[in-house]
Amino acid sequence: MVRYKMWTLCMIQRGDEVLLLDRQHDHFKGFIPPGGKVEFPESIAASAIREVREETGLLIHRLIYKGLYEYVNPTKNDRYMIFNYLATDFSGTLIEDSPEGKAMWVKIADVDKLPMQASIRRRFPLFFEEGTFEIQVEWNEQENCEGAVHIRHT
After folding, report:
1. Which CATH number fits domain 3-153: 3.40.50.1820, 2.30.30.240, 3.90.79.10, 3.50.30.10?
2. Which keywords appear in this protein's UniProt record, sorted alphabetically (predicted)?
3. Phi/psi of residue 29, each to 5°?
4. Over 80: is that where the pLDDT of 12 sits?
5. Burial of 4 (0-12, 13-18, 19+ CB in 10 A)
6. Which of 5, 43, 107, 124 is the most buried (most CB within 10 A)?
């Protein structure tokens, strides 16, 4: 039996800046866009909107679907799916103390200088290109690291 887990991630863009969270807890440290687990039975888009609101205080008015990022672990029969969105239409005021990390507007041109997980860095430029992407990463269970990476951009 295959186990599925689903998350969302939403890149929020304001002109030449994006909103990132400076996450400094658990094993997933670095600058990341807001996002999180899809709660059953909510829709995937509703999850993205909820996660942005909880983590930043902002309300998204329009989501643009950008692509799927997934990890597959053939040894454990796991498939982790992350649905990626871009938002440029939003309102609200940033919350000061998000449990996920301090929200900061960062120039897109400066993002490459920030500490960031490889999975976020790999897909970051694809948010600003036309079309959608699909990235599949095969997890190497024996070495506890990423194995083959397949990127499709349409």
Report:
1. 3.90.79.10
2. Hydrolase
3. -90, 160
4. yes
5. exposed
6. 124
Rounded to an integer, what distance in angstroms lies between the CA atom of residue 154 and that of residue 149? 17
**Is-contact 87 10, C-beta < 8 A?**
yes
Question: What separation in angstroms does the CA of 114 have from each of 7, 95, 108, 110?
Answer: 23, 22, 11, 7
- Residue positions counted in the chain: 154
CA proximity to 85, closest of 68, 109, 71, 100: 68
Q: Given the DSSP bridges, would you call strands 30-32 and 133-140 parallel, antiparallel or unpaired? A: unpaired
Q: Cis peptide leading into 41, omega within 30 of 0?
A: yes
Structure tokens at 60: 């998204």
Whether this prediction's pTM lies above 0.90 is answered by: yes
Distance of CA 87 to the CA centre of its chain: 12
